[in-house]
């Protein structure tokens, strides 16, 4: 696979593949744009119930592709334009309507950790490696990206990650609160897709509502009455009636997203 980002769909599960294998899937400007396009496409598809993000081969993402910096981030003006691309891509992952899972194999550093931090669930292998090493290059991360990391790891661990700028293992990443599950390297894909299938089997309207509500709670503005009442709309859905019927009949519910 040549460098780029592709979207594959298998039933209710979509897979977004980040590919630049010669550089451990380091993100190029084109890949950031394609990531946004793929995530926007997935988010608008009502048939999708879960999105899995993964790297091509045995790595997630090693960061930004530094080989293009002399052309794409040579000064502040270029860096601002580059940052607009990356922020838009990260926002599209963060704001995806559907649940998202980061399937992390191998290296998950820099931009890879950014992408993983805005996924809803993060699963990795025992030998996976993490870190943000921007201070080795003398560049800064944006406020939004730092906010995402603080939301997961807290202020103290985020400061440690940013100020030390070192690469660390999966157990330390889990101790910092970054990971949901560590499995054997050979079992990462199986674990991630098993979780995706489990999520996809649940009521998609409820999953989308809860994700949207949790994102809304990050906004300090008071919850409006319309926001509060929107959850009651689920009680008028076919999925709610099917869920209750299936529970009473002691069978697995078959939700249709309506």
Task: Provide a descriptive summary of the structure in words.
Strands 1-2-3-4-6-9 form a six-stranded mixed sheet, with helices on both faces. It has a three-stranded mixed sheet with strand order 5-7-8. The protein folds into two domains: 4-200, 2-enoyl-CoA Hydratase, Chain A, domain 1; 204-248, Lyase 2-enoyl-coa Hydratase, Chain  A, domain 2 (Orthogonal Bundle), CATH 1.10.12.10. It is globular, with a radius of gyration of 19 Å. The longest helix has 22 residues, at 143-164. It is an alpha/beta fold and 258 residues long. It has helices at residues 29-43, 69-72, 76-94, 111-117, 134-137, 143-164, 170-175, 188-200, 204-216, 225-230, 238-248; strands at residues 4-10, 13-19, 50-55, 100-104, 107-109, 121-125, 129-131, 168-169, 181-183. Helices cover 47% and strands 16% of the residues.
Number of domains: 2
Ends distance: 37 Å
Number of H/I helices? 11
Q: What structural class do helix, strand and pairing data support? A: alpha/beta
Shape: globular
Instruction: Return the CATH topology of the largest domain.
Output: 2-enoyl-CoA Hydratase, Chain A, domain 1
CATH level-4 homologous superfamily of the largest domain: 2-enoyl-CoA Hydratase, Chain A, domain 1
- Percent in helix: 40-55%
**What's the mean pLDDT score?**
93
Q: Could you give the order of strands across the largest sheet?
A: 1-2-3-4-6-9
* CATH architecture level-2 label of the largest domain: Alpha-Beta Complex
